[in-house]
Design brief:
Number of strands: 21
Number of helices: 20
Shape: globular
CATH topology of the largest domain: Rossmann fold
Strand content: 15-25%
Radius of gyration: 25 Å
Strand order of the largest sheet: 11-10-12-13-21-20-19-16-17
Structural class: alpha/beta
CATH architecture of the largest domain: 3-Layer(aba) Sandwich
CATH class of the largest domain: Alpha Beta
CATH superfamily of the largest domain: Class I glutamine amidotransferase (GATase) domain
Bound molecules: glutamine
Length: about 550
């Protein structure tokens, strides 16, 4: 089977859901029995997303092979129910880095190395490699940003060149936005017409236009866009705001999008099976009970939108687990600094069925997190700590159970007498030499689980693999003292003996994990620890 490529580009404005659109188109083609993979292209100069502030840029997603990528990669993994690799992600920085390295190694054999064509050719090489690696029938390629900016022009050029080479097997989707200005109360198509023309000026013509908007697009507007943008009416797709992103594949199928795409590719249509997916998306509407989870961390004043983006995989994993427990979920964001100002505020936590502390960095709000963990431990509120949430659970235990009152992570207190979370020499060197990019403990590592633990029971297997992203580690010098006082070390890395999971035995659910289980949760295959946490919370 030939490789087919679908480029997804944005028009009018950013933030309209290109990533979910890309993932959803991939899903409906996968549901027709084709092997689909997805690539994210980010136009910024950063080599990866690891050095970017998640409050500004959204979550840093981590792949099995340890790449720190854009959060859209998480959407692709969740929708396509697959694990993607570093080859599925690229940035301007990464592409230039390779081209410059090749030039230094004389790989261009004395030629003048130019922005065009050498940069687009490197992009094309990467796209084809990812597609071949995944043995994909169809490869979704999302180009970040919107048409008309300088930043993504070389990626559009790569796409244009691929289309020129093989027009039948390359197609373009423009994801646009149709505003409804309140003073008019009418959906406007002009910005999309302009976006199409801007795309045309790069030598690319969209085969499909996905029209995002608050509302459904009506027939007159579909016809108008068809005529003015020069695409068939059935190729103009309406994509109004929906309750859940998991409803979008079915929304596209109700407009026969996969049939139209397969027709355009001259691929034989196969029957579609989206039934399991649709059933999953429907559970949330039927669920009667609601489980209330408090997520505690240092939170920012930038409003909920950014917040949700910074922790998108945690939020999605909580939803998947709630639905698997036939429940809806309410997630409240709790600023740990509130507890530093006034300890009495901790009582607020008893309103929750469970408390989760997600990953994080730095010193702000940390004492508030530690008080939170103490409260959950003592009041027997189900507690799930992820990465920093695990590290701080051991700090809390060392301080308040072992009586080592100044115990800390060296991330916050370098000179602490009891460095229960410490840093290995290699990482120390990285920090000293300001080598921050791509140097944390990253990607998938095996973990052996202890018989009789909550984790062993939840996973149902003795060895698991989970993705990491952290610089600091549990200090094994404290292992014995913890275990003697009731904290079980239930997960360790087989090679290094690094502690990956701690839990409490005399508690309904108290689990801290050094890794990021949220990256592995899928809507149809919720993560076992999230599922067990929510189950305990409901109980
Ligand atoms: N800041 C901690 C570390 O670097 C935890 C990181 C995280 O939570 N992702 O080890």
């Amino acid at each position: 089977m030939k490789h087919h490529y679908i480029f997804v580009v944005g028009g009018v404005m950013s933030g309209v859901g290109k990533g979910v659109t890309t993932a959803s188109i991939g899903k409906i083609l996968q549901a027709r029995g084709f092997n689909v993979t997805a690539i994210k292209i980010d136009p910024y100069v950063n080599v990866d997303a690891g050095t970017m502030n998640p409050v500004e840029h959204g979550e840093v997603f981590v792949t099995d092979d340890g790449d720190e990528t854009d959060q859209d990669m998480g959407n692709y993994e969740r929708f396509l129910e697959t694990d993607l690799l570093s080859t599925n992600y690229m940035t301007t920085g990464r592409v230039y880095q390779t081209v410059i390295e090749k030039e230094r190694n004389l790989e261009y054999k004395g030629k003048c190395v130019q922005v065009v064509p050498h940069i687009p050719l490197e992009v094309i090489g990467r796209i084809k490699k990812a597609s071949a690696n995944a043995k994909a029938d169809i490869t979704m390629v999302e180009i970040g940003g919107t048409v008309g900016e300088y930043e993504n022009i070389l990626f559009l050029e790569a796409a244009r060149m691929m289309h020129l080479e093989d027009p039948e097997n390359v197609l373009f989707v423009l994801v646009s936005y149709l505003p409804v200005p309140p003073h008019l109360g009418e959906m406007k198509t002009k910005p999309t017409q302009h976006a199409t023309r801007t795309l045309n000026s790069t030598g690319i013509h969209p085969d499909f236009i996905v029209c995002r908007g608050e509302q459904f697009m009506d027939k007159p507007r579909r016809e108008k866009l068809s005529v003015f943008c020069n695409v068939k009416p059935e190729s103009v797709i309406t994509a109004p705001d929906v309750k859940s992103i998991y409803d979008i594949p079915a929304l596209f199928e109700s407009q026969d999008l996969s049939t139209s795409i397969l027709k355009r590719f001259k691929m034989k249509p196969r029957t579609s099976d989206l039934s399991k997916w649709k059933a999953m998306a429907a559970v949330q509407l039927k669920a009667e009970k609601t489980v209330k989870i408090g997520v505690v961390g240092k939170y920012f004043s930038t409003g909920e939108f950014t917040l949700a983006d910074s922790y998108i995989s945690v939020i999605e994993a909580l939803k998947h687990a709630a639905w698997a427990n036939k429940s809806k979920i309410q997630i409240d964001w709790i600023n740990s600094e509130d507890f530093e100002k006034d300890e009495k505020e901790l009582k607020r936590l008893s309103e929750y069925d469970g408390v989760l502390v997600p990953g994080g960095f730095g010193t702000r709000g940390i004492e508030g997190v530690i008080s939170t963990i103490r409260y959950c431990r003592e009041k027997k509120i189900p507690y799930f700590g992820i990465c920093y949430g695990m590290q701080l659970a051991t700090v809390e235990f060392a301080r308040n159970v072992l009586g080592k009152t100044t115990a800390h992570t060296v991330e916050v207190d370098e000179a602490t007498k009891d460095p229960i979370i410490h840093i290995n020499p290699l990482q120390k060197k990285n920090v000293r030499e300001n080598r921050y990019g791509g140097t944390m403990r990253l990607g998938a590592y095996d973990c052996d689980l202890k018989t009789g633990s909550i984790s062993r029971k939840a996973y149902g297997s003795a060895t698991i693999s989970e993705r990491h992203r952290h610089r600091y580690e549990f200090n094994n010098e404290y292992a014995q003292a913890l275990e003697e006082n009731g904290m079980m070390i239930s997960g360790t890395n087989p090679g290094s003996g690094l502690v990956e999971i701690v839990e409490l035995t005399d508690h309904p659910f108290f689990v801290g994990v050094q890794f990021h289980p949220e990256f592995r949760s899928r809507p149809l295959n919720p993560h076992p620890l999230f599922k067990a946490f929510i189950k305990a919370a409901i109980k």
